[in-house]
Amino acid sequence: ESGREAPDGYGAVSAASPPWAEAASARLGVPIASLLQCTDARLFRPQGLERSGGLVFVGTARGIPRPSIIEPLKAGIPVSVYGPDWSGWIPGGAIKGTGIANVELPAVYESAGAVLNDHWPAMKAAGFVSNRLYDVVAAGGRAVSDDVQGIDQIFEGAVRTYRDVQEL
Fold this sequence. Notes:
Layout lengths: L13 E2 L2 H11 L4 E2 L20 E4 L8 H8 L4 E4 L12 E3 L7 H7 L2 E4 L3 H6 L4 H8 L4 E4 L4 H5 L3 E4 L6
Parallel strand pairs: 1-2, 3-4, 3-6, 4-5, 6-7, 7-8
């Protein structure tokens, strides 16, 4: 919307969240279609790699406590974390790199015991599902994510979700 009340001048408008698209359509009085996120299937595809038992997380710290990473580490469960700004949030030994090349991600996702994921609170509330989940599932990986409306329907059980720290 970019501060505008209606998406005037566009032939079609879509959003990556079915519930948000429906609510915005009603609010703005224009049809907004849901168009889910996707992945590059040429890159993110199973390679037949052996799966480890390790947990992996790829992403930034965001400057906020992220239970999907912090809680397993607090419980003594190792998590290999790739991404910037984690210093001070998690033990240094969990940080495997400040980033990872996109071309390396499919193998990391497929070979991990599970890839941890969570959503920005505003995205979660509006039903926007993280594009990382599409990449992990397409690569043949196992994903564990906080619960967002629509994940079960989109991934048909291929993504395990949790509602609170206890379920995680």
